[in-house]
Amino acid sequence: MTFTTKLDVFEGPLDLLLHLVKVNEVDLADIPIATITDQYLEYLDLMKALDITIAGDFLVMASTLMHLKSKMLLPKQEQDMEEIEELVEEIVGPLREYMQFKEAAEDLAARNVLSRDVFKRASDTYFMIGEGKEGTTAKVNLFELMIAFKRVMARQFPDTVLSFEAETWSVKEKIAEIKKRVEGQKTIYFSELFSSKGSISELIAIFLALLELVRVGFIAIFQPKPGDDIMLQAFK
Amino acid sequence: MNNSLKLIVESLLFAAVDPLTPRQIHGLLPERDLKEIKEVLAALKDEYEGMKRSFTLVEVAEGYQFRTLPRYKPYIANLLGATPTRLSRPALETLTIIAYKQPILRQEIERLRGVDVGGIIRMLLKKGLIRVVGRKPLPGKPIIYGTTKRFLEVFDLKDLSSLPTLKEIEELGNGEEE
Predict the structure, then answer these.
(1) What span, in angstroms and rounded, lies between the C-alpha atoms of A188 and A182?
(2) Which of these, A13, A71, A89, B118, is most buried using a 10 Å CB contact count?
């Protein structure tokens, strides 16, 4: 049975290099490339033997190291020296920078970290629910709108009222009315919309106007919690 | 010094969840001078320090916030029970690079760390420690990252300029490698 593991002892090639530099107790300015390269490759072999998946980054670094090592072994001329220096810097430069940040990270972690070393006053977030904050509102579907409308109807017309007046309410007019109200205020509630003592036909006109405004995307509707009053906002 | 203003500001600091900046307080009290508010904040800070209480008014994340002193940490940790979410070492290193090098591209972070940081970046974004600052006008419009106010708040930093300067590394210090 074979299985692969991913050890993050050495997160990346820089980690491994850093480890080797430390183990060998050498200066970054004066790294014995040949020794470090050999040890680096040994580690890769070990990782292979342990069936640890080796990331491509490790191999890139390996090839850079080997390239450098071969350059150093060959007889050198003036221009070779320059190239070698460049290659060394290619390895040591990032290593130096990486160490700098590792140290800075240690320093950050040693600070008075909030909720670990020092504490601020606990906030009561419960009452922030329903304040219209993003994430606390649920979208309302048509069905919930209908129920809300039914509730308004029940409140406005507790008993059956006979009416003989012929009224005409234009949905268009109501659209303009709602638009004006939503633009004026930040949020208005569904129940407020029907607060005027109107007839059934007027309420229906308002409701149809509302549906139209939602359909064209002028108004966004929210419900903080199921059963709560539905909120309307101009869609931005 | 206006004592009633001082108490109003104190009440705001007491009730606030996040650090309050002088500007935020000024926004709540527009009839007051920003300068006056700053003076009152400094005075409150001195007063709380002088009182030798278990908490002080701390300048953090460009604002002010009441915080307990570090020495009371074990008691409060017991009270709160839950252990705080820990940042892994790779995450902390990535965050450090972003803090010092911002605004920074993901590619630059990966060059500095030598490994892929996609997952870590997503996690740091989710924790609100870093944010998308913009996009670089390069092919593919790569995202530029920076740290947030929350980062300053968590690491007890007054502002970004109070990050300690990076040390020059010539040779290895005492090893902390595990």
Answers:
(1) 7
(2) A13
Structural domain that includes position A37: 13-109
Burial letters B35-47, b for 16+ CB under 10 A, else e? ebbebbbeebbee
Split into its structural domains, chain A has a count of 2
Q: What is the rounded average pLDDT for all residues in chain A?
A: 78
- Which of A85, A103, A80 shows the shortest CA–CA distance to A31? A85
Note the helical H segments in B89-131.
89-101, 106-113, 118-126
A235 touches chain B (CB under 8 A): no
ipTM of the complex: 0.86
In A, minimum Cα distance to B177 occurs at A19
Tens digit of pLDDT for each residue in A80-105? 888 888 888 888 888 999 999 999 99
In this structure, is residue B93 part of a structural domain? Answer: yes
CA atoms of A8 and A52, how far apart (whole Å): 10
Tell me: do A170 and A92 sit in the same domain.
Answer: no
Q: Within 10 Å of residue A103's Cβ, how many Cβ atoms?
A: 17
pTM above 0.90, yes or no: no
Q: Which of residues 27-56 of B touch A (CB under 8 A)?
A: none
CB-based contact, B167 to chain A, within 8 Å: yes
CATH number at residue B35: 1.10.10.10
Classify residue B172: in a domain, yes or no.
Answer: no
Among the listed residues B12, B4, B111, the one whose alpha carbon sits nearest the alpha carbon of residue B57: B12
Residues A97 and A162 in one domain: no
Angle at B110 between CA B104 and CA B114, to 5 degrees: 145
Q: How many domains does chain B have?
A: 2
d(CA A222, CA B86): 36
Interface subset of A 18-37, CB within 8 angstroms of B: 18-19, 21-22, 25, 27-29
The span from the CA of A63 to the CA of A49, in Å, is 19
**Confidence at residue A224, expressed as pLDDT on a 0 to 100 scale:** 75
Q: Which residues form the domain of B118?
A: 89-162
Nearest in space to A94 (alpha carbons), one of B3, B50, B108: B108
Judged by a CB distance cut-off of 8 A, whether residue B157 touches chain A is yes
Model confidence over A156-211: pLDDT tens digits? 666 555 555 566 778 888 888 888 888 877 788 888 887 666 777 788 888 888 88
